[in-house]
């Protein structure tokens, strides 16, 4: 009986994905005036890039662990 076979049960267990570093603190703050300055806008772009890299890293690690389809 397969359900009593420890090796078969172990093969069905989920695998743990590799660790992913937390995203750093957001560097943006609310714009001082009605329109953001270039420096404020650049901080938003930097934060968005960091978020994208964190999400893509998580997805890649989940694919490697076999939890997401390639």
Explain this structure to me?
- The chain has helices at 6-12, 38-64.
- The protein is built from two helices and no strands.
- It is rod-shaped, with a radius of gyration of 21 Å.
- It is 49% helix and 0% strand.
- The protein has a domain at 38-63.
- With 70 residues, it is mostly helical.
- The mean pLDDT is 81.
Index terms:
rod-shaped; 70 residues; 49% helix; mainly alpha
Radius of gyration: 21 Å
* Mean pLDDT rating: 81
Distance between the termini: 33 Å
Structural class by sheet pairing and helices: mainly alpha
Order of helices and strands: HH
Number of helices: 2
Largest sheet: none
Binned strand content: under 5%
Number of strands: 0
Low-confidence stretches: none
Overall helicity: 40-55%
Shape: rod-shaped
Short description:
It contains two helices and no strands. With 70 residues, it is mostly helical.
Topology overview:
Elements: H1 6-12, H2 38-64
């Amino acid at each position: 009986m397969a359900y009593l076979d420890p090796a078969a049960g172990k093969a069905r267990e989920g695998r743990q994905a590799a660790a992913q570093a937390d995203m750093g603190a957001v560097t943006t703050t609310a714009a001082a005036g009605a329109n953001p300055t270039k420096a404020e806008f650049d901080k938003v772009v930097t934060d968005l890039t960091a978020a994208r890299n964190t999400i893509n890293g998580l997805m890649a690690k989940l694919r490697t662990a076999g939890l997401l389809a390639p």
